[in-house]
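Feature request, filed as a ticket because there's no other form

It would be nice if the structure record came with a short human-readable summary line next to the tokens. Right now we just get the raw output. Example of a typical job, pasted below so the devs can see what we mean:
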Amino acid sequence: MACLRQKAQIDYPCNWSYKIIGASKEHLEIAVEGICGNKDFDLKHSNNSKGGKYISMNLSLLVMNEEERVEIFRQLENHESVKMVL
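Raw output as currently delivered:
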């Protein structure tokens, strides 16, 4: 039996959350400020890796449409200070 993938129905505008992982809290904060510009956002510490090499933070903000949501993800993913985006 084939698995059919359906695109999730998201009603915009909506609050969206990203988990970002990097080596430095300060560098992640600078990255988010540069990407989000003057948009209101909430950035909170989430966790540290067991060895202390990485930190994860939760970024929440209002996105107006799918294009904006995907673009923010893309910019986070491509930023030199961000190791991973979930």
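Something like this underneath would help us a lot:
The beta strands are 14-22, 41-48, 55-63, 82-85.
Residues 14-85 form a domain with the Alpha-Beta Plaits fold (CATH 3.30.70.260).
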